[in-house]
Write a structure and sequence with these properties.
- The structure holds 2 protein chains of 2 kinds.
- Chain A has 16 helices and 13 strands.
- Chain A is of the alpha+beta class.
- Chain A has a domain at 212-258 and 339-484: Cytochrome Bc1 Complex, Chain D, domain 2 (Orthogonal Bundle), CATH 1.10.760.
- In chain A, the strands form 6 sheets. Chain A has a 3-stranded antiparallel β-sheet with strand order 5-2-7, with no helix packed on it.
- Helix content of chain B is 12%, strand content 33%.
- Chain B is built from 4 helices and 19 strands.
- Chain B has helices at residues 3-13, 138-147, 204-213, 285-295; strands at residues 51-54, 66-68, 71-74, 79-82, 87-88, 101-109, 119-127, 154-164, 167-176, 181-190, 193-201, 236-237, 247-249, 262-269, 275-283, 299-300, 303-305, 308-310, 312-319.
- Mean pLDDT of chain B is 84; it is low at 1-37 and 325-338.
- Classes of the chains: A alpha+beta, B mainly beta.
- At the A-B interface, α1, β4, α4, α6 and α11 of A face α1, β6, β7, α2 and β10 of B.
C-alpha cells in the first residue's frame, strides 16, 4: 500500500481486535491442554501459561534518537487489515495470492508479534469474504495452527511427483478470486489434496518475533566464537551456519535461518504471505508453478490500480514515522520489540516451585540441550539506534546455527545453504506461552516435541537419549523450566 | 477489509467447533482427486544441503561404519565392537559436519530391553585436520575438554591414560549433579582423527561394566596412531602435505554457485603422486564437481620413506577457511605429523 498508516489507523481495526479477544477467550484450557509425557514417562507438559508476563512491549528504555515513535507506528501498521483495492483506510495491495490479510493475524500469541493464536484466523476466510471464491484447505482447522504450505517438489505433467525438481516455495492458501475489490482476477488454489496424496505437502507456522532486534544485532564473530566454544561436546553435535549467497555473511531469521535482516525477513513475508509488493520484493508473487510457466495472468496484476510497488515510502507524510514504507515500519517494530519475559509456571492448577524451575534449567544444560539451545550465544554489538540493543545478552536459547534434525522432522525444503533436514535452532524464549510447537505446529505437547528431536540422522539423538534416561521428576523439572521461558 | 467482513470474521472466529468447509473428501474445484500418483517416500532426506560423498564407493570412509548383528564395524578406523546384549543403534547419527566431526555410532538398549539401568555409548571421530578446537591429539583433546568443562559438571576422574584393547586411550570422567548422569570419555588417535567413545549413564556400575567390555574391541595396531605403513589399505596421514614443496601441478576449483561454506576434503595420494581418492566430508554437489575437476590435475612429488614409496592421506580445505582461531592454534608452526 502507499498510504501512510500512522495518520489513518487510529487503533487496531475493529474486526481484528475482536478476533484477538476471541482467540484469548477460547484458548483451549491452556494449563492442561498439553497432556502427559511420552510412553515411558509420567512427566506432564504444564501447557501454555496464560498469566500475563507483559510480553509485547518495546525494548526501548532511553530513547535519544526518537525511535519509540517508530516502534509504535510499526506496531500499528502490523495490525492493519489489508484489502485488494479501494480500502477506505488505504490498506491496499492484498494478493492476488495470500495466506492472511494482516501480520497480526498469524503473529498474535501471546501478544502482537507472537506466533499463531489458539483460534485460527485463516479458518473463516472462505466464509467471511476474505477469500469467497476459495475452499478452506483441509489442514486449516478452527483451533489448529496458523499455517503456510509448501510442496517440496514440482509435479510432472502426468501428476506424479518429480523428485528431481525441488520446489519448496510457499503455496499460498488463498486467492482474491470472487472478491468485489479484485476485479476480474480469477485464480485457482493449489491442489493441496493432490499434494497430500503424493506425500508432497509440508507446513510451517509463524515464528515469533519478540527480541528479534537483539538477534539481528549479533555480530558474526560472536556467533562463530560460540560455535567454536561448543564444538567439542559429548553429544555428537556440530552445526553450521546458513550464509547470505551474496556476501557470505551469516543469515539468521526464519525456520532455516535463511534471512539476514529484519528488513529482508519482513519484506519477503509481506510479499509471500500477504501478496503485497514492496521495495524489497517489487512484483506481485505468482505461485511457484505459475512462476515456472508464464507468471500471473494480466487480469491479476496491478489490482490496486496504483502501480508497483504497492507498499512504498510516503515522502510528503508527517510525522517522520509516516514517511516510511510498511516494510521499514514492520522491521522497526520487530527490531524494538522486547524479548519475552520469563515467568512463573502453573501445573495442574498449582504453582511450580522456583526450585523445580532452577533444577530444570541445570538439567536442560547438563544433558546437552544447551549445546544448541545455548542461553545466549553472546552479547550484541553497539547499536546506532537505541542503547537497549547495545552490548546486551541475547537470551534466546539458540545458537542460531542450522542443525541436522533427521528424517523424522525433515521437510525436504532447501533454503539458502540449509538442506531438507536442517533447521535453525528454534529460539526458546517465550516458549511458556507458545501453543503450537515444531516448525509445522503439529504438536502442542512439549514432551512430544522433545522426543521428536530424535530420528534417523538427527544431531539431537544423543541428547534425546539423555532425556529419556532422566527420572520422571527430572523430566518434569525440565518441562517446568521450558514453560517458564 | 470493510465492516461487513469484520463482523463475519468475528462471528466465525467465536464459534468453538465449526466444521471445516473443504475438509474430508474434496469435491471438484482445485482440490479434486488426482488419481494414482507417485508418492514422495516418507522418512527419506531427498533434498540435501552440504553432504558427504567420495570419488568411489569402495574405499572405506569414516561415516560408513554400521551395526550389524550386534556388532559395530568401521573398516576405515579398523574398529570392531560387539554391543552388549539387547543393545542396538536405534538411529544413525547425522552426516559428517563441515568441521570434520563424525558420529560413528549411537548405541543404547533396545526398546525391548527389560533391565532397570539404561545408558548409552556414543562413538564419534574428529578429523584433526579440520577441528575448531586448538588441540592436536587425543591427550590434548581430553585435557581441553576437562579444562573447559561447563559449570554444570564436576570432574570425577581427571585425565589419565588407559589401556583399552591393547591400545592407549586418554580418559576422564565427569558427572552432572543436577541430571545425576555420569560421563566416561575415552579418546584415541587413529589416522589423524581423534576417535572418542563416550559412555553415559546414571549408574557407574554400568559404566564400569561397559568400560571392561570395551577391552573386547578390535582396534588397529597401536604402532600406527597416525596411519599404517603407507601400503595396502591404510595410507600414512600427514597434516598440511599439500604444500608448495610437495606439489608439481595444481589447479584451483572454481565455485560458481555456493562458495561461502567450509568444504573439508580428505584425499589419498597414490605412490605415483596422483590423487587416488577424494572424500568430500561436507560439500554441495556443484562444489564436489568443481573440486573433482581440479584435483584431477593435481600432481604431487611421490612420498618416500626409507627409500620406499608410500600412499599419503591429507586434508584440504576449500571454500570458507576453517574458523579455528589462529591465536589459539598451537598446531601452527609445528612440523607435519607422520
Amino acid at each position: 500500500m502507499n498510504v501512510p498508516k500512522s495518520t489513518q489507523l487510529l487503533g487496531m481495526p475493529v474486526g481484528l481486535s475482536l478476533v484477538v479477544l476471541c482467540s484469548l477467550a477460547q484458548s483451549p484450557a491452556p494449563t492442561t491442554s498439553a497432556g502427559g509425557g511420552g510412553p515411558s514417562s509420567g512427566a506432564t507438559d504444564p501447557g501454555v501459561q496464560i498469566a500475563s508476563r507483559g510480553t509485547g512491549g518495546s525494548i526501548i528504555t532511553t530513547d535519544p534518537g526518537g525511535y519509540q515513535a517508530f516502534f509504535l507506528d510499526g506496531q500499528k501498521r502490523f495490525q492493519a487489515v489489508e484489502s485488494v483495492s479501494h480500502s477506505p483506510t488505504g490498506n491496499n495491495g492484498l494478493g492476488p495470492r495470500f495466506n492472511s490479510n494482516s501480520c497480526v493475524s498469524c503473529h498474535a500469541q501471546p501478544a502482537v508479534g507472537g506466533s499463531g493464536p489458539a483460534v485460527n484466523p485463516q479458518f473463516p476466510f472462505t466464509n467471511n469474504g476474505v477469500a469467497p471464491g476459495d475452499r478452506t484447505p483441509f489442514f486449516i482447522t478452527a483451533n489448529g495452527p496458523t499455517r503456510e504450505a509448501r510442496f517440496p517438489f514440482f509435479f510432472d505433467q502426468f501428476g506424479g511427483v518429480n523428485t528431481s525438481a525441488p520446489n519448496g516455495g510457499v503455496e499460498d492458501l488463498f486467492t482474491v478470486t470472487g472478491r468485489p475489490d479484485a476485479g476480474t482476477c480469477r485464480l485457482q488454489q493449489p491442489d493441496f489434496f493432490q499434494a497430500q496424496q503424493a506425500n508432497n505437502l509440508i507446513f510451517r507456522i509463524p515464528t515469533p518475533i519478540f527480541g528479534a532486534g537483539l538477534i539481528e544485532n549479533l555480530d558474526d564473530s560472536t556467533l562463530l566464537s560460540n560455535q567454536a566454544a561448543l564444538e567439542n561436546n559429548s553429544f555428537g553435535i556440530d552445526g553450521s551456519f546458513n550464509h547470505n549467497g551474496n556476501d557470505g555473511t551469516i543469515t539468521r531469521f526464519g525456520w532455516k535461518a535463511q534471512n539476514k535482516s529484519l528488513h529482508i525477513f519482513t519484506g519477503e513475508a509481506y510479499n509471500v504471505e500477504m501478496g503485497i509488493s514492496n521495495m524489497l520484493f517489487p512484483q506481485d508473487r505468482p505461485s511457484p508453478e505459475e512462476e515456472q510457466a508464464r507468471g500471473l495472468p494480466a487480469s491479476c496484476l496491478n489490482l490496486t490500480g496504483t502501480g508497483y510497488p504497492e507498499d512504498a515510502s510516503n515522502p510528503t507524510s508527517t510525522p517522520n514515522a509516516a514517511v516510511l514504507d510498511d516494510v521499514s515500519a514492520f522491521a522497526n517494530f520487530m527490531r524494538f520489540l522486547a524479548p519475552p519475559p520469563p515467568g512463573p509456571v502453573v501445573l495442574n492448577g498449582q504453582p511450580v516451585s522456583a526450585q523445580s524451575i532452577a533444577n530444570g534449567k541445570q538439567i536442560f544444560s547438563s544433558i546437552g540441550c544447551a549445546t544448541c539451545h545455548v542461553q545466549s550465544p553472546g552479547t550484541t554489538q553497539v547499536s546506532n539506534m537505541v542503547p537497549a540493543l547495545s552490548k546486551a545478552p541475547v537470551n534466546a536459547f539458540s545458537d542460531l546455527e542450522i542443525h541436522h534434525m533427521g528424517a523424522g522432522l525433515a521437510d525436504n525444503v532447501s533454503q539458502g545453504g540449509a538442506g531438507g533436514d536442517q533447521f535453525r535452532t528454534a529460539p526458546l524464549w517465550g516458549l511458556g506461552q507458545r501453543i503450537f510447537l515444531l516448525h509445522d505446529g503439529h504438536t502442542t505437547n512439549l514432551m512430544q516435541a522433545i522426543q521428536e528431536h530424535g530420528s534417523q540422522g538427527s544431531e539431537a539423538n544423543q541428547v534425546e537419549n539423555n532425556f529419556d534416561n532422566l527420572q520422571t521428576s527430572q523430566q518434569q523439572d525440565l518441562l517446568n523450566f521450558l514453560r517458564s521461558l | 477489509m470493510n465492516f461487513r467482513y469484520s463482523v463475519c470474521l468475528l462471528l466465525v472466529s467465536c464459534r468453538l467447533s465449526l466444521p471445516a468447509q473443504g475438509q474430508g473428501t474434496p469435491k471438484g474445484g482445485s482440490d479434486s482427486s488426482p488419481g494414482v500418483v507417485a508418492k514422495v517416500p516418507s522418512g527419506v532426506i531427498l533434498v540435501k544441503g552440504a553432504w558427504s560423498s567420495a570419488s568411489d564407493s569402495v574405499t572405506p570412509l569414516p561415516e560408513r561404519g554400521v551395526v550389524d548383528h550386534g556388532v559395530f564395524r568401521d573398516p576405515y578406523f579398523g574398529i570392531r565392537y560387539a554391543l552388549p546384549p539387547d543393545w542396538t543403534e536405534k538411529y544413525r547419527g547425522p552426516p559428517p559436519s563441515e568441521n570434520g566431526r563424525y558420529v560413528l555410532a549411537e548405541l543404547a538398549p533396545a526398546d525391548t530391553f527389560k533391565g532397570a539401568v539404561r545408558g548409552s555409548v556414543l562413538i564419534t571421530a574428529q578429523d584433526m585436520f579440520f577441528s575448531l578446537t586448538p588441540t592436536n591429539n587425543a591427550v590434548e583433546l581430553i585435557n581441553y575438554m576437562k579444562n573447559h568443562l561447563q559449570s554444570d559438571y564436576t570432574t570425577e576422574t581427571p585425565p589419565k591414560q588407559l589401556k583399552i584393547a591393547d591400545r592407549s586411550f586418554a580418559f576422564f570422567s565427569y558427572w552432572s549433579p543436577a541430571a545425576e548422569l555420569h560421563w566416561y570419555v575415552l579418546a584415541t588417535d587413529i589416522r589423524c582423527h581423534v576417535v572418542q567413545i563416550v559412555l553415559t549413564s546414571r549408574d557407574m556400575k554400568l559404566l564400569d561394566s561397559l568400560l571392561v567390555d570395551l577391552n573386547k574391541m578390535k582396534l588397529p595396531a597401536e604402532a600406527s596412531p597416525t596411519g599404517g605403513t603407507g601400503g595396502g589399505a591404510v595410507p600414512v596421514c600427514i597434516q598440511d602435505y599439500a604444500q608448495a614443496e610437495n606439489m608439481i601441478a595444481r589447479a584451483e576449483p572454481v565455485f560458481t554457485d555456493r562458495k561461502f561454506n567450509p568444504v573439508p576434503v580428505r584425499i589419498i595420494i597414490g605412490k605415483d603422486g596422483k590423487v587416488k581418492h577424494v572424500h568430500f566430508i561436507s560439500a554441495f554437489p556443484d562444489q564436489t564437481k568443481a573440486i573433482s575437476d581440479a584435483l584431477a590435475r593435481w600432481k604431487f612429488k611421490p612420498y618416500r620413506r626409507d627409500g620406499q614409496g608410500l600412499e599419503v592421506e591429507t586434508g584440504l580445505q576449500f571454500g570458507r577457511p576453517n574458523a579455528r582461531d589462529p591465536a589459539n592454534d598451537e598446531r601452527r608452526g609445528s612440523p607435519p605429523r607422520n
